[in-house]
Every structure is written in C-alpha cells, then in structure tokens.
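batch_manifest entry 22 of 60
target: Isochorismate synthase
source organism: Cellulophaga algicola
requested by: lab member K.T.
priority: normal
notes from requester: please return tokens only, no post-processing; we will run our own comparison against the previous entry in this batch. if the run fails, retry once and flag.
--- input ---
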Amino acid sequence: MLHDLFYKAKNHFKTSKPFVLYRKPSESTVNGVFQKDDVLHYVEDFSKTGFIFAPFNTDDRIVLLQSDEKHEAEYIASESIKDLASLSVVQDDAQKEFHINLVHKAIEAIENAGVKKVVLSRKLEVGTRKSAFTLFDALLASYSNAFCYLWYHPKVGLWLGATPEILLRTENKQLKTMSLAGTKKVEEGKAPVWGTKELEEQKLVTDYIVAALESSVDNLTISETESVRAGSLWHLRTSVSGRLATYNLKEIIAALHPTPAVCGLPKAQAKAFILENENYAREYYTGFLGELNFKEENFRSSNRRNRENQAYKTVKNTTSLYVNLRCMQLKDKKALVYVGGGITHESDPEKEWEETVAKSNTMLKVVL
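--- output ---
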C-alpha cells in the first residue's frame, strides 16, 4: 500500500538514511529505493545498479543511491488535490531586472561571440510549511504525464520535481531519447501556434542529439515534431531512437549531457557563459536522475499465477534517466524553485522573463 511506502520513506528521513520515491510518466506505480546507511556513493563508470542523481556541471560527481531495498505501491490521486489552481506570485523587481539584463547579454554573445543558443535560469525562494511528502503527493496528483520524484540524501539534500523530459532510456541495446524545446502557455480549446524562435530552438536541440549519437547508435530514427502538454504549458518534442553499436553508457551520457535544451550550443561556450553569468549555482537543477541498470522482467502472460507461461519470461537490462527540470530543493523551511528558458537571436528579453514566470507555476502552485 502507498501508506506503507510513505511510512518507510518517512522513517528513513527521520533516521537520516537516503531514499527516493518516484513514478514514471503515465504510470500508476510509485517506486521506492532505499539505502541502508548514509554512505555517499558516486558513479564511476555506469556499471553499477542503483538510482543516480547527477548535477548540471559535468565537473561535479554523480551520486549513486544504492538499491538495498526496493518497494512499490499503486497510487490513486486524492480528489482534494487533483486540480491545483494557477496563482499570481508577487514579482521580484530586482530579479526581473537582473534576468532581463542577462538575456540581453546572452543575445549579444549570440550575435558577436559565436554562441547559437544559451539556456538561462534563475532560482526563487519561498517559505513553505508543507512537508516534502505532502508536496510529493500533490505533484503525483497534478502531473500524471511527468516523472515525479522525491529524493533525499542527508549529505546532499532534499529535492523533488515533476519533469517532462527524458534524457535517455535503454533496453538492452535499444536506445530512446528526445529533444524537448519551446514553451507556450496552454489556452484551453486552442492548439499552440509556434513561431520562428521556438521552431529554430527545437531544431537546434534535435540536430545536436542526432550528431552526438551518430557514431555510437545504428539505425537512428527521428520522429515528426509534435506538440505535447505538460501541466499548463505546451512544448515541442521530437523522439529519437536506435540500436547501440556498443553498450558504452558513460560515452553516450557524456555526449548528450548537458543537452542544448538545458545548456546551449556550442556546449562548451554556452556552459562557460552560464557558469560565469548566472548569479547562483544550479547544483542538480538541469542535471539528470533515474534508474541505472535495473533488471526488468517481462512475461508472456500478464497473469503471473500462470506457471506454464513463467517459462517464457525475459529479463532486460534497462536504464531510464530524466532531465531534472520543474524541480525544487527544500532547505530550512524554504522551497528553492528553479526555472529557465532557451535564448536565441530571436529572443525577446521581456517574453523570456514571462516564460520563466509561467514555468515557475508548476512548482509554486503545490508549494503555496
């Protein structure tokens, strides 16, 4: 039962032991991974099994939460929190001015310094009396098509989020990923109309992913670009899939992360601009997280009591990683909410600020 899963996680939290609760997009099962001690483990070569939590900055180390225990439970949303109303947040004029000036500076770099795109972000701090588990329950109820998670390590911190973006999924040697860019507010009853800026941004991300994978993935297949809804926002999405020539997860992740959707192009120049000009450390925002080398059993029959068909089960080695967007960190009775957006030569600084305001609603409306 979900109550038992939450109870175990709360006990781990009280005794300062690492755990993660999460639900994959469009699924009803909430998974729990629990580590028996507070040792801080790191990923070296992506050969181990566990739940990983990676920072934006690739110079920093990736945390591995060991799966000493795994549990799962079915989730049914509470009617009282299924639909959370949008809200108006008091505007921080100083932060608005800084962000708009930063966008101007990025556009100047794009025009004069060879940068094609840079993703700029900011951090909001708001007080909250709600527990991490109450907030996680609200995310589960509100964002059924997102990867929702609550992650804790006493030596790192407490994070939660609802992200719409897959970094990659592998099943044995099959790989799937996506490019996700462009943002528009949902207007009920109306399909989104995309402008040059959003379409160009989406193409930059897709082209980068395809180029990054060409040498290590065979039979690359690129889908048509489609509009997908994530809460109160529309995004553009293109799916990319293929077969791994060799299973070198470290090499593939290094090629993809950070993607142009969270960093920019060229990667090195965009990352340098971010680290030099953003006025805070992103930490794990725009990093990635998820299952590493999990074993997944598939049966010929969905009826596990059918012993005859048990002989036809297959075991797959799977890795499912998600980009850490639409997230927050809980610290000292405050929620630190992270939002950002992609800047190109077509960007309008005022509209870019408004986009971050719209994106912040995803987290703020469960916090406030």
